[in-house]
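User: Show me a protein chain along with its predicted structure.
Assistant: Here is one chain, sequence first, then structure tokens.
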Amino acid sequence: MDLFEKLRNNLGPIGSPARDFNGHHYFAFPKLEGELGPHMRFRGKEVLNWSLNNYLGLANHPEIRKVDAEASKQWGLAYPMGARMMSGNSDLHEQFEKELAQFVGKEDAFLLNYGYQGVMSAIEAVVDHRDVIVYDAECHACLIDGIRLHKAKMGEYYKFNHNDIDSLDKNLQRATKKAAEKGGGILVITEGVFGMSGKVGSLDKIVALKEKYEFKLLVDDAHGFGTMGKTGAGVGEMLGCQDGIDLYFSTFAKSMAAIGAFIAADHDIIMYLKYNMRSQTYAKALPMPYVVGGMKRLEMIRNSSEFRDKLWENVRALQSGLRERGFDIGDTQSPVTPVFLHNLEGGVPEVAALTKDLRENMGVFCSIVVYPVVPKGTIMLRIIPTASHSLEDVEYTLNAFSLVGERLQKGYYKKFAAEIAQKTLQVSAEAATE
């Protein structure tokens, strides 16, 4: 069998809807153009954009742009060359690490080139075949892939029901027994803010279980860093349990509007990670413009609540307005704003038609999310308010959703769903005859 034959006509669970609805470059891999911000262009039309994780609006802030440009001019994108361990270290890398650690209340931190590969590699480095992982059922894919690396080393792992402390308790009982048998330890993995539902992880309750069980806690706070807590230090700060987080991770791709990530912990643990995280040991150091630009972003987050205050003004206005209009936005406690769509007889084609109506006729761009990004049976639109949005943007969007709600009730999108389904059958038939 030709190795590639199974790939040619099967784009996998995420790619299949894009193929079936002719959605490549529309629902998937869309091309937004223009200056980063709330108002961009999509397929030649201006749209109000709710699909950037630019929570604090720093992506296009003039001070940030200036520092990024000056750092690029001074250092270029190549410096420093080599991995940190060999030839790619610098005083500025270490200074940035100290500032990040101090901000999140930890002894030390380690800069990572990317969030996804970084946290995967951290999990792989921390646990071995004797250890047991206990993780939240809705952990992000990067965490799941890190757990898979643990499985490859013949490590044990247990999954607890999402944000369910009773379920975690029961699984910790199992994990404690298994760890004792194998002579290992336990790592609990969860998130500060779950990026699709917007729910806040029950970190304070998880930390409280340390009085009953012996384990270490890793928290992916990608969506909480910069947005949650009194100073923006994340969900642990907000819930008063930051000290109980043993490994604090966040990416720069959200509030920092950049590339890179970091993990923070006790100094001796960070030293171990610096010498044992394969994704960093064998990869080029984070380029200097990202380091210098990152320090400027952290300075702006640390020194002023202005961006966070504006973000939350928009969040409250948007979320309360959606609820008032009868939309289900779940139990979000964060800027992440899901709009769950229920009882759609037309299924994904119906919500595809709805999304197209929003984009084409109302100029509102938000993302459609289906399985496997979210659990089976869940269909949602995902809206990300930022500090760059205005209350006028919020009001315009709420009015658009009022119209969407009326059209949903009248079955307006079902006829379009039927048309899409018919085209899908036609495309599938043509592909089968080729």
